[in-house]
Amino acid sequence: MTALPPNLAVESPPDELEEEPRSSVARFLAPLTGLVLVFGGWEAYVRLAGVSPLTLPPPSRILGHLADDPGFYLRNGSITLVEAMVGFVLALVVALTIATAMAHSRFVERATMPLIVLIQSTPVAVLAPVFLLWFGFSPTPKILVAALFAFVPFVANALTGLRSVDADTLELMRSVDASRREILWHLRLPHALPGLFAAARICVSLALVGAVIGELYGGSTQGLGYQARIAQSRSLVDQLWGSVLSLALMGIVLTLLVMAVERRALRWHSSQRTI
Question: CB of 141 within 8 A of CB of 159?
């Protein structure tokens, strides 16, 4: 075989070689830029407009308050985080189980769909006092509220993903006598993963919101939601905004973690390719 002349040798374009480092830097630089713009604009507005700290404290003051007593927010934040994450996992497991049954049976789908619509149409916040009556002053009411917030997006995306499989591949697996379990594990679940991760990016924040609402109305004595309610009733502005900012930062970190797991788990999928 004749070798190619040196000037015709195939080489990787420099842009392709540098694409991965550049994308890694941009991945962290883009959200950081957005946060700096938002908080910088907030700080500038409060100082230039002379807004009273009782109305809207600047971010520097809130961060200073957090630095003065980090243990208070870490302790209460960990309680809210555990409630939210247990609810998140509970919603995922129950939704995936129900969606799997619905994907394999139209009868199960028709019987279950009205209940899902009922859950979606019911203001979940009003159920927190009901759960308090049923389960008492325990983490259970907060976990259930968090799970209900995340349940509907999970079950909807899971059902769509489990049903949206390639018809030819499904027919091929059936032709070689693949069992329902093998089809589920090797075909349906991989197709459902992009939808599940898309739902997870939303549901991780919804579960956090549900845990906070459960603490507000579920008879809690700990957690950031409870501390925000106490701060509001006693006009503790710094504690109120400290709780709000802690919850916001917690939601950002959880969403970024989900996105990192998604990139790792779906490296094979077209949704993770950069154009």
Answer: no
Taking alpha carbons only, the member of 251, 232, 252 closest to residue 241 is 232
Q: Which two tokens stand for residue 179?
A: 């069992």
Which of 27-36, 40-49, 104-113, 135-144 shows the lowest mean pLDDT across its residues?
Answer: 27-36
Q: What's the predicted TM-score (pTM) here?
A: 0.79
- 215, 125 in Cβ contact below 8 A? no
Q: Which residues contact 259 (CB under 8 A, 6 or more apart)?
A: 201
Check if the beta carbon of residue 103 is closer than 8 Å to that of residue 162. Answer: yes
> For residues 231 and 225, what is the distance between their CA atoms, to the nearest angstrom?
10
Whole-angstrom distance, CA of residue 108 vs CA of residue 96: 14
| Beta-carbon count within 10 A of 246 CB | 22
**How many angstroms separate the Cα of 77 from the Cα of each of 81, 94, 143?**
6, 26, 15
